[in-house]
UniProtKB/TrEMBL annotation, chain A:
Protein name: RNA polymerase II subunit A C-terminal domain phosphatase SSU72
Subcellular location: Nucleus
Function: Protein phosphatase that catalyzes the dephosphorylation of the C-terminal domain of RNA polymerase II. Plays a role in RNA processing and termination.
Major enzyme class: hydrolase
Coiled-coil positions: none
Residue stretches spanning the membrane: none
EC number(s) given by UniProt: 3.1.3.16
Key words of the record: Hydrolase, mRNA processing, Nucleus, Protein phosphatase
UniProtKB/TrEMBL annotation, chain B:
Classification lineage: Eukaryota, Viridiplantae, Streptophyta, Embryophyta, Tracheophyta
Domain Symplekin/Pta1 N-terminal: 101-317
Tree of life domain: Eukaryota
Keyword Transmembrane helix: yes
Transmembrane segments: 1184-1207
Keywords carried by this UniProt record: Membrane, Transmembrane, Transmembrane helix
Region annotation (Disordered) ranges: 335-424, 612-635, 1287-1324
Bias-annotated ranges (Polar residues): 405-421, 1287-1306
Compositionally biased intervals (Basic and acidic residues): 339-354, 1307-1318
Pfam families, alphabetized: SYMPK_PTA1_N (PF11935), Symplekin_C (PF12295)
Keyword Transmembrane: yes
Signal peptide (from-to): none
Protein's organism: Hibiscus sabdariffa (roselle)
Name this protein carries in UniProt: Symplekin
């Protein structure tokens, strides 16, 4: 695998983890992040979300929610999701704090807001390496089903990108091809490390 | 250590680099390279200098990754040891040409690092001494060469991926060459301090680095960059290049605000749709541009300020208005241009959500509005808003003033800037000259664009800025003013509203945010200031109208906020005011939002009157008000707005009931209260979350209570929408949901529960479906489910089964989650869940099924699931349930073409399962095979998603089976078989061709299944009647299904005349395939007599009971045509059978005879006589003739006379020639003695003798009889001789011959006698 991939959504729980899980299974060098300030999970009501800090292990969340209301969290799919997540990595990570993780070649975001935040963050870093990074936004609705669809699309796109010598020369073609094939709009930008 | 290479490490490095060279596999090679890199970087300069060439060698490697890594190593060595630059730079230049883009990019990437360090070192060394060492100088010159090379890549057309990095390199160099305004302008005191290099350290005292020159070069490069984005060059670029360019330029603009004025015009004039050829990626570039502009907007540098408006405009065009507003607010905050900045910033956190709310409302309106463009379209919500707008001409005037005041604030900045420029241009003549030069060039128009560009690029940014500023003075003041105004008007109008007033968004944002922050003031002010506030209404009115206008629900948003805002303080002060309390509270009363007021004055007058009242007041006071507000900070104006909103909304809350009184009281209040505004202090009370919850909850309870009372007032549509919205929108919604639910369910019908429920559901559904974050989606979905389920359960439990509410609710709800379907399933198949609901009556099942039916019709997406439920119910173990469901499925659902196949498949599967379970259980008592078989059959189901429904059913049926079988051995019981098959039978009546399957199944079915089938058949066949399909099935029945066929035929012929076709089919079947005459039995009465006679041997051959049945049919015949055969014909036919010829055992024939004789009421004496009469004439005589005679005597002794006649005829027919009959004859004679004596005496003497010899017992009575005088005389002598009554003896020879003659038949005769005697004993 030539490139390093990052999957980014807001809480590093659903969409990015779904994609992370899938790509990891396919042998990609992949990480995942969230751009939010906290990790928010649905609670018993809109007013009472379960809020965790980034870095809180998924296992911890899992145990916490299972203790609180196993029935509810099983029904709305949170517990299964956490279970999946804890098999992928230890804890949710925040994009803005990932400088130590080295540079990525391709960054996938799943929401335009997240896309903008990633770009803004990249622009605010010292761009001294002149190492280009492709940031692609694939709009995915934040629910379990769509996340699964989105992950498959992301995988498809990653395979396309992986297949070329350097994405810088063919990114437009790849993306246009992808858009025509899946009828999904993509947004992309190029930034530098 | 310096200068002396450690021999060990040297050796090690050499071997390492060699092994790299000779490694063949890429993986290990790269790994070695990395190790080499680590080792090398630890080495000192001297060691490296020796070694550098080895690494250059590495670059000759054929594989790209190795070359890339080699380049990286060299680059890092260079950064660490700048003295190698003269060697490394040429190397990097060659690498730039590398065929592999990644390697070339690596070269650029190394170059920028190297360049930065070299520049830094050169600069700093130059600061400290006027002479630079020559090494550094040559390094620097090499770096310049490298830079030029990369420039050429950046600006040459094409070259894709490398170009991206090269452009980035240009950006980096521009940033390096220009002073950083935020950086330190002095170099760090000691060299080691890690501080970002800033070119302004140089201050022009460097030997060969000239700040001015560098700046000019940066400018030129920037121009080149900008040129790329200019038309038409931009058309030839790929999207990725454009994106990089935009990003780079915005970064430069942000970091070097001096260039702002040069970069922004280019960015602003970019119109992505017009230049991106591959249209699909317009939005990619668009997005980059948007982000770039946004980031420029956030720039706080003074030189950015003049661009703000244009940026805003451009962003608005790009539909990023909301973000722009936020950004602008931040700018305002930074610049401190708004007076109330402190207050402002204190609420800035709250501002965001509020702005969002506005945006949401705005966009919502925009969407809804497209249909109803003009104000007349608003009529729907009442004329209120429209009227108000029309009746307040002062509005625009007022607003202009406001606007002026507002713009003057921003102009403040400009004027201060102007004052500085004025100072400047006193000092600097050149600026004025430049202005003149620009003027001349501009006057030349298009053709001067080029030279204008050159001019711009050749002067420094600061100077250019001064020129621009100086030029400001030349602009006509009015023009600039109106220009700005126009722009503001155009750009900042939030929505195309009906009023002409348009407001800067920032102002509106302020308004909204402040009103939300100061509800207490609002509340208190309301009573004293309501009329003056009307002015402000026009401002907020715009917003409120827009929100309230086209879409009433949007208005409720405002309403909701309002209720929230205003209720809080009020409630805090007076515990929990009930409606009556409010009256006592006096002034505060009007602070409790409009809702209350409208509640009180409900229905008193009409809203239009109110608004006209208000507007008159408005006109009167507006003028004065406008001036009095002119000089004040927005803060003073703002509090009133929230009140206004509440007042505005109150009439809307009950559209028909008006709050005219409210406004009129308000006006009267005004007259008695003077202004006390400035003295007001805001009693802000901070509530804890819990308190807020409580307050909101209590408020909601009151609202619900109020709804119960005003239910009679009408207008429920609007109100229930409002209630639903409130219930969902307010936070801590779980409790409110419950309250709302309780309200709905407390009186479902009177509270318009259905409508209200639907509104709540739609709102929740909308929220769940909305493109929002994960957790609110999920929460809303779960709230939706809970709500719907609770209502559905209550409807089920409280309403009579005949009620249609549940069906209606499920039919109209936006979607049905699984739990609701489960509920339905339990309803349709009682006992499916663990909960014992045996009490459920059949009516509930009907209710459930009819609901399912309507769902199938109304909701195609869940048709499959619903169908499963119905089908499940159709194989329910309770017959009552099953029959209901079958009726639904067969009569209503099966005719629907879209699902008929599915129903058919299911029914067939169940049918087969009944048979196969049976088969499987014979082989495997554990029933494991059943499971696997079921899974197989499951495959044909179209969707696996809903498998649960059917599979649960299956499990149940499997369990059922097992319990059944444990009781009754290895086959399912009859009821179980019926359970599985009823549906199929029902379908057969709809589609006769399905019936064939039953025939196929039948042969392999167990006894119980067969029994079940037989039980069904009569009803089934009778319902079906005879169709062509059925005929076809009959014409070719599978082997093994004969019994079934028989039953079908019997049913078909029962009570009716079978059609000719049927008879034909059956006959054909009999002739061709099925030789069993039995199948003909049902139609026998309808066959012609002669055909039947032909068949007769076969009939006789049937088992006795069947023959008897056939006999009955034959004799009864059909109602129309009468008997097919008369009894006499039957008997004759029986006698006509020749056992040998027809291959029928004699026994069968005799049985048949016996059967006839048993029916004495049919086979009467007369008939027998007739038959015998006919038989005796036959030649040869029928085999059984004598036997029948004997039986006739036995049955009817009265026939003796007739029999004697027969016997004598037999004598004349020489009966003795038929040995078998002869025996019978004798027996008969014996039995009928003494009447038979006369017949015996008619026998010729030899036969007589034979007879007497055979039956010795006859002799004595016969002799006695013959001895009578009158008889004796009539007898010939020969006879007498035989009787021994004459002395003459017979010649012995003659006797001998006759003996011999009869002797050979003797044995057989004996047999026959024995046989007959046996027969007769059996018959009697």
């Amino acid at each position: 695998m030539k490139f390093r991939y990052a999957m980014v959504c807001s809480s590093n729980q659903n969409r990015s983890m779904e994609a992370h899980c899938l790509l990891k299974k396919q042998g990609f060098d992949v990480s995942s992040y969230g751009t939010g300030t906290h990790v928010k999970l649905p609670g018993p009501s809109l007013r009472e979300p379960n809020v965790y800090e980034f870095g809180t292990p998924y296992k911890h969340m899992f145990d916490d929610l299972r203790r609180k209301d196993p029935e509810l969290y099983k029904r709305n799919g949170i517990l299964p999701m956490l279970k999946r997540n804890l098999s992928v990595k230890l804890a949710p990570q925040r994009w803005q704090d990932n400088a130590a993780d080295g540079y990525f070649d391709i960054v996938f975001t799943f929401e335009e807001k997240v896309f903008d935040m990633v770009l803004e963050d990249l622009h605010n870093r010292d761009q001294v390496l002149l190492k280009s990074v492709l940031v692609i936004n694939l709009e995915v609705k934040d629910n379990h089903e769509e996340a699964a669809v989105g992950a498959r699309l992301a995988l498809d796109l990653c395979e396309q990108i992986e297949a070329v010598e350097s994405w810088e020369d063919s990114v437009d073609d790849i993306l246009i091809c992808f858009e025509n094939k899946h009828r999904r709009k993509l947004l992309y930008s190029i930034s530098f490390y | 250590m310096v200068g002396i290479m450690n021999p060990v490490s040297r050796e090690k490095l050499a071997s390492l680099s060699n092994s790299v060279k000779f490694a063949t596999d890429l993986g290990p090679k790269l790994e070695l390279c990395r190790q080499l890199k680590r080792d090398l970087l630890e080495e000192d300069a001297a060691a490296l200098s020796e070694f550098l060439s080895h690494i250059f060698d590495l670059y000759s490697d054929p594989s790209g990754p190795v070359r890339k890594l080699a380049t990286e190593i060299i680059g890092e060595i260079g950064v660490k040891h700048l003295e190698f630059v003269p060697e490394i730079a040429p190397f990097l230049i060659t690498v730039l040409e590398d065929a592999t883009p990644a390697v070339a990019r690596q070269s650029i990437s190394c170059s920028i690092d190297l360049f930065r360090h070299t520049l830094e070192k050169t600069a700093i060394q130059g600061l400290h001494s006027s002479e630079l060492d020559s090494d550094l100088e040559s390094s620097w010159s090499w770096m310049l060469k490298l830079k030029e090379k990369i420039y050429s890549i950046a600006f040459q057309p094409g070259s894709g991926g490398v170009k991206l990095v090269a452009l980035k390199f240009v950006e980096a160099v521009i940033l390096l060459y220009t002073p950083n305004p935020n950086g330190s302008s002095e170099p760090p005191p000691n060299e080691g301090t890690p501080i970002e290099f800033n070119i302004s350290w140089l201050h022009g005292r460097h030997p060969f680095l000239n700040v001015g020159d560098l700046s000019i070069e940066a400018s030129q490069r920037l121009v080149l960059l900008l040129d790329q984005l200019r038309f038409p060059t931009v058309k030839s670029l790929t999207t990725s290049v454009i994106v990089v360019l935009i990003n780079s330029l915005s970064a430069i603009a942000k970091k070097r605000p001096a260039y702002y004025g040069r970069i922004l015009p280019v960015l602003l004039s970019l119109d992505p749709p017009s230049f991106v050829i591959k249209e699909v990626h317009v939005y990619g570039a668009n997005n980059a541009l948007k982000n770039a502009l946004l980031s420029c907007l956030q720039c706080s540098h003074p030189s950015a300020a003049p661009w703000r408006d244009r940026l805003l405009g451009a962003l608005k065009d790009m539909e990023a208005g909301g973000l722009a507003e936020v950004a602008l607010n931040q700018v305002h905050k930074v610049n401190g241009s708004v007076e109330d900045e402190k207050d402002h910033s204190s609420v800035i956190k709250e501002e965001k959500p509020m702005t969002k709310a506005c945006d949401a409302a705005g966009s919502n309106v925009g969407r809804k509005r497209s249909g109803t463009e003009d104000s007349s379209g608003l009529a729907e919500t009442g004329d209120v808003s429209g009227k108000r707008v029309r009746s307040t001409p002062s509005v625009s005037e007022e607003s202009t003033k406001e606007l002026n005041r507002n713009t003057s604030m921003s102009q403040g900045d400009i004027s201060s800037a102007q004052s500085t420029t004025r100072k400047v241009d006193v000092d600097t003549g050149p600026v004025q000259q430049l202005v003149a030069m620009f003027g001349a060039l501009v006057a030349q128009g298009e053709k001067a664009v080029g030279s204008l560009g050159i001019l711009i690029s050749s002067i420094s940014a600061d100077l250019l800025a001064e020129v621009v500023m100086a030029n400001m003075r030349n602009l006509p003041p009015t023009h600039s003013h109106t220009d700005a105004d126009d722009e503001l008007l155009e750009d900042m109008c939030i929505v195309g509203s009906n009023t002409q007033a348009k407001y800067p968004p920032s102002f509106l944002v302020d308004v909204v945010s402040l009103s939300s922050t100061f509800p207490p003031i609002a509340a208190l002010l309301n009573s004293q200031q309501s009329v003056p506030n009307e002015i402000v209404k026009t401002e907020v009115g715009e917003e409120v109208d827009v929100m309230a206008g086209p879409n009433s629900t949007v208005a409720y948003a405002g309403m909701a906020h309002e209720a929230e805002n205003a209720l809080l303080p009020g409630m805090e002060k007076i515990d929990v005011p009930t409606p009556s309390d409010i009256q006592d509270v006096g002034n505060l009363e009007s602070g409790i939002p409009g809702l209350d007021s409208s509640f009180h004055y409900d229905g008193l007058s009409d809203a239009q009157a109110a608004s006209s009242l208000v507007s008159t007041d408005l006109e009167d006071t507006s003028q004065e008000q406008g001036t009095s507000f002119g000089g004040k900070s927005p803060l003073h104006v703002l509090p009133s707005i929230s009140i206004e909103r509440s007042e505005e909304l109150s009439p809307k809350a009950a559209v028909n009931d008006s709050s005219g009184v409210v406004s009129s009281t308000a006006t009267s209040v005004v007259s008695s209260h003077p202004f006390v505004l400035p003295k007001m202090s805001a009693p802000v009370v901070n509530l804890s979350d819990d308190q807020k919850d409580d307050v909101q909850k209590l408020a909601y309870i009151r609202i619900i209570e109020a709804y119960k009372q005003i239910a009679v007032a009408g207008g429920s549509q609007v109100r229930s929408s409002l209630l639903a919205y409130l219930g969902v929108e307010l936070p801590s919604e779980l409790d409110l949901h419950k309250l709302l639910r309780d309200h709905i369910l407390s009186d479902y019908i009177n509270h318009e529960g259905h409508e209200l429920t639907l509104r709540v559901l739609y709102r929740l559904f909308g929220e769940a479906e909305e493109e929002s974050d994960f957790f609110s989606c999920t929460t809303a979905a779960s709230a939706y489910e809970t709500f719907l389920l609770a209502v559905a359960e209550t409807l089920r439990d409280t309403f009579p089964p005949s009620d249609k509410s549940l069906s209606k609710l499920l039919g109209e709800a936006p979607c049905l989650p699984k739990s609701v379907l489960n509920l339905l399933e339990c309803l349709c198949s009682p006992g499916i869940s663990e909960k014992a609901e045996e009490s459920q009556s059949g009516d509930r099942v009907t209710q459930g099924l009819s609901t399912v039916w309507s769902l199938i019709l109304l909701r195609p997406p869940i048709r499959d699931v619903c169908l499963k439920i119905a089908l499940q119910s159709a194989v329910h173990h309770l017959e009552e349930v099953r029959m209901k469901a079958i009726r639904l499925v067969a009569n209503k659902l099966y005719p629907l073409p879209s699902i008929s196949q599915q129903i058919e498949d299911f029914a067939r599967e169940m049918l087969l399962s009944a048979v196969n379970i049976d088969a499987a259980e014979i082989t495997d008592a554990e029933g494991l095979i059943i499971e696997s078989h079921k899974q197989d059959s499951e495959l044909e189901k179209p969707s696996h998603e809903h498998q649960s429904v059917s599979s649960t059913g299956k499990d149940i049926s499997a369990i059922f089976h097992q319990s059944e079988t444990s009781q009754s051995g290895s086959s399912p019981s009859v009821p179980e078989a019926q359970r599985c098959m009823s549906l199929y039978f029902a379908l057969c009546t709809k589609k006769h061709s399905l019936f064939g399957q039953i025939f196929i199944v039948y042969s392999s079915a167990s006894k119980a299944v067969k029994q079940a089938i037989h039980r069904h058949i009569p009803i089934l066949v009778r319902t079906m009647g005879l169709s062509s399909d059925l005929l076809e099935i009959i014409s070719d029945p599978p082997t093994g299904s004969e019994n079934l066929l028989m039953q079908v035929l019997q049913t078909l012929t029962e009570g009716t005349v079978p059609s000719a076709e049927l008879i034909f089919t059956i006959k054909k079947l009999f002739d061709s395939k099925l030789k069993d005459v039995e199948i003909l039995v049902p139609v026998l009465p309808f066959l012609p007599g002669d055909e039947v006679l032909l068949l007769f041997p076969y009939l006789v051959n049937l088992p006795l009971d069947k023959f008897q049945a056939a006999l009955t049919r034959l004799l009864q015949g059909s109602s129309q045509s009468g008997p097919v055969l008369s009894p006499a014909e039957v008997l004759i036919a029986i006698h006509g059978i020749d056992p040998e010829r027809d291959g029928i055992p004699l026994k069968k024939v005799t049985d048949a005879c016996n059967a006839c004789f048993e029916q004495r009421h049919i086979f009467t004496q007369q008939i027998l006589a007739k038959v015998l009469n006919q038989l005796v004439e036959q030649i040869p005589l029928p085999l059984l003739f004598m036997r029948t005679v004997l039986q006739a005597i036995g049955a009817f002794p009265g026939l003796v006379g007739f029999i004697m006649e027969i016997l004598s005829r037999l004598v004349s027919k020489q009966i003795w020639k038929y040995p078998k009959l002869w025996v019978g004859f004798l027996k008969c004679a014996f039995l009928t003695k003494p009447q038979s004596f006369s017949v015996l005496l008619q026998l010729p003497p030899p036969q007589l003798e034979n007879a007497l010899n055979r039956t010795a017992a006859l002799k004595a009575p016969l002799v006695a009889h013959a001895s009578q005088e009158n008889i004796r005389t009539s007898l010939p002598r020969s006879v007498l001789a035989v009787l021994g009554l004459s002395p003459e003896s017979q010649p012995s020879s003659q006797v001998q011959t006759s003996q011999a003659h009869t002797g050979d038949t003797n044995n057989s005769e004996k047999d026959a006698v024995a046989e007959i005697s046996k027969e007769s004993s059996g018959a009697s």
